[in-house]
Amino acid sequence: MSTTSPLLEVRDVSLGFGGVRALTEVNFHVNKGELFSIIGPNGAGKTSMLNCVSGRYKPTAGRVFFEGRDVTGMTPNQRATIGIGRTFQNLALFGHMSVLDNIMVGRHHLLKNNFLTGGLYWAGAQKEELAHRRKVEDIIDFLEIAHIRKATAGTLSYGLRKRVELARAMAVEPKIILLDEPMAGMNLEEKEDMARYIVDLNEEWGMTVVMIEHDMGVVMDISHRVIVLEFGRKIADGLPDDIMSNERVKVAYLGVDEDEEKAAEAVA
Known about the structure:
10 strands
C-alpha cells in the first residue's frame, strides 16, 4: 500500500441540514490499495460521509480531494467518470430489469458510441459493446452469479440482490469503491461470501475500498485501517487492534463503560 499521496482525502468536512449537524470537521485520508472502514453507532454520520465523498451531498464546509484533485463541486456522475464507484445502504437496483442489464447500466458512462454514432458506425459500436460484455462477464464470474444472469433482479433474494449491486458498482471500473453496509440483512453464510468477495476485490482486483459496516467482527478481520464517528465527529482513527482497544470507542460504539469493565474484571 502506498503511503506517500492519498487516493482520497477529506479535509474538515462539515454537513448540516437546517439546524441539524450531521458532520463536524471530519478529516481522514485513504491510501491507494487500502481496505478502509468507517464505523460508528446509528446516526453517527457514516452514510452522510459517503454521500459527501460520492457527490450526493455537498458539504456545508470543507473539501473532498480525489487523486489530489478537488472534487467537492462535482456531481455524482462526474465523480463516477473519474473513478469513484458506490453501492447503497438501501438497494438501488432496477427491479424490472435482468441481472445482466442491471450490471450493464454500470458501463453506461464508459460508452463512446451514442445512438447516432452507433447507427452510423454500427461495426464500431458492436465491437465496443462486445468489449463491455466481456468485462461484465468477468465480474459475473468473479461474484459467482452466472446462474442468475437472466433473472429479473426484483425476484432475487436480498443477499443475491446485494451481490448484483456490487457487480454494477464494479462495472463502473472505479479506482475506489464506496460500500454502504454491503452485508446488512444477510445471514452468516451470505456475510462470509460477501466478505470474501470484498477482500478479493481489494487484493486480486487491486481496488481501493471504503466500507461502512456494522458487523464489527468482519470490519476488524478484513480492514487495513478504521475510523470511528460519533455524532458526526471523528473520535478514533487507526489499525483495527488500536480501535478495538480504544476506551472511547468502547464507550461510544460498543457500549462498554470503562469503570464497569474494570469492575467485571475484578470480579472475574
